[in-house]
Amino acid sequence: GESVGLHLPTLSVQEGDNSIINCAYSNSASDYFIWYKQESGKGPQFIIDIRSNMDKRQGQRVTVLLNKTVKHLSLQIAATQPGDSAVYFCAETRGPDKLIFGTGTRLQVFP
Amino acid sequence: DSGVTQTPKHLITATGQRVTLRCSPRSGDLSVYWYQQSLDQGLQFLIQYYNGEERAKGNILERFSAQQFPDLHSELNLSSLELGDSALYFCASSVGGTIFYEQFFGPGTRLTVL
Question: What sign does the CA torsion over B20, B72, A40, A96 have?
Answer without folding.
Answer: positive
